[in-house]
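Usage example:
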Amino acid sequence: MVYQDTLQLADRGKGAYEITDLVADFISESGIRTGTCQLYMHSSSAALLICDTADDATKSQTASFLAQLAPSSADMDIRINDGMEAIPDNMRTVLTQTSLGIPVSNGKPGIGIWQGVFLWEQSADAAERKLTITVTGEK
Amino acid sequence: MVYQQQLRFSTRGRGTSDISREVSDVIHNSGIRQGICQVFIHHTSASLILCENADPTVRTDLETFMKKVVPDGDTMFQHTDEGPDDMPAHVRSVLTQGTLSIPVNDGRDTLGTWQGIYLWEHRTHPHNRRVTVTVMGE
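Running the assembly step on the lines above writes:
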């Protein structure tokens, strides 16, 4: 069977927000015990990532790394066209994931003990975000 | 129908291991003829890639590229409790894949002739890694 919904997530500003509990609740609601869960972000400047949950520094350091690789226009010593400010946000998103699949085992997200699912907002001035979750499998 | 199986791999430290055979065995065990196979790694310092399997220097070059993009011991990193390869391993995982989805057709994976599924260990020391393979279809 298939259980799907699109959720509206309020804008909380740039940063990584853990959504593991939200995903676990959705899987539990679906009643599916074994299968897969696909998360899809309807955006090109917000990513979905699985990160280490043991040390918060892992997330902040990943953010620093990506910021160095694709710096925001304000930090770049080059002139860019008007309206191109969002390009670094898109680049950081392209280098990560906007669609994420995880196993569903025993009615729960089948992820590692130190893994968490994060919504990673790359844009400083985003509106609310749409996330579609599809759980497929057997009860 | 759904078929799910856990696989365990012992890595020998940083580098890639071809796990195509093990994944293909799970598809075979499932009895599913047509559908999707999802491969998921339960770690944030090792990842999965689809990569060319004919010439091993492709993977050596990928390793060289990654070392350059995410240098071990880079002073920008603070999460270094487990050594200079600790934080780079997390970044390398984010830049590659934790999940792969492969079509299943005629009871087999539909990898291209020159494609292989690789587990990429990013830590320099050997680790035991867990992978869940879920096959769904008819």
